[in-house]
Structure formats: structure tokens, C-alpha cells
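Worked example (supplementary).
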Amino acid sequence: MAFAPGDRVRVRPAEKPGHVRTPGYLKGCPGWIEGVLGRFPNPEDLAYGLSGIPEKKLYRVGFRQTDLWDGYDGPASDLLYADIYEHWLAPEGEA
Amino acid sequence: MSGAHDLGGSSGGPIDRSGHEVEDWERLADAINSALGGKGLQTTDQHRRVIESLPDYRDLGYYERWAAATEKLLVEKGILTREEIDEKAGELERRWGES
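After joint prediction of all chains, the assembly is encoded as:
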């Protein structure tokens, strides 16, 4: 699944066994593609001594803080950016 | 599965900001790590995964985690056995007592 800047996405809520590089607090949260950072060997496979191939696309994803935390009392304009690999992302309506 | 490092958003309590002098064994743990990396026997991704899987993660200091993870990883890869490590550790302990 390839995304372009501006696409609405949601972090997959899945519990994946083993080593995970996506923060738990972002799972299931909606956001948007802020940028495409390139392709890299999958660190979740490299962690087990595997090749990490095929490489995974890494995206910079933007989130509204109010979408992440219950009762967030900071300004509604507060944002958070996180770098998330493609296999952790789905179109917003699908995840 | 959330690893020990996946703490974002959880309540961690007060932060202990006290520092300490770096001890020789900590430098050694770091150096061994670099040497194993240089020899292609271990990577940062592998080491990080094993650090997060330590059952006593919370009870260990930073370099204690490094040393424990290096040991676990070398056993997992079949490069050293638990017995070989224990034997060497026992030998070093005996020598330490003699000096």
C-alpha cells in the first residue's frame, strides 16, 4: 500500500507478536501522511537477524494531539509527528 | 506485544536525574558491544530486541541490560553457551579473590 502526502491514514491497531517499532499509544489513531522518508530494511525483521528485505517505506505521519489522548487539555492546534513503516498504516476508513 | 521501551503515554512517575561516574565494567560492556558489531556477530537492532525482552528489565541498570542482552544474544546465536559464560565468570571471580 503506497500513500502520498496529505492522505488520511490510521495506524493499525493490531497486536503483532515479537519486536515492534510502532509506539503503542499510536495504535488505532487517525492521522495524515506528512512526508515520504524513503525505503529501509524492516527493523522488526533485522531485530531477529533477518535481512529486512523487502524494504519497507517509511512515512512521517502527523497526528492531532487531541486524537491521541483522552482529555487532552492543550491547544487544539497541537500536533505530533512520528515515523511509521508502511505495514503499520492503512487508509483511515479501513484500519 | 509492547516491549519494555514502549512507554509513551504511560505514567512513569518521577524521573531520577542523579548521575554517576561511568565504571570500568560499563566501558567494557560498551566496548564488547562495539567489537561484536565490528565482527558482524551482533547488530543494534538485535541487541535492542533482546534488551526489551529481558524479564528483569526493570531491575537492571542501563549497562547491566546491555551486558545481560549481549550474553543472551550470544547464547541464542550459539556463539557461547551458558555454561562457558558461567565457567569464565567463576574463574574471574576466583582470580579477583586472590589479588
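Two points are worth noting when inspecting this output. Chain B touches chain A through 14 residues (CB under 8 Å). Chain B has one domain: 27-98.
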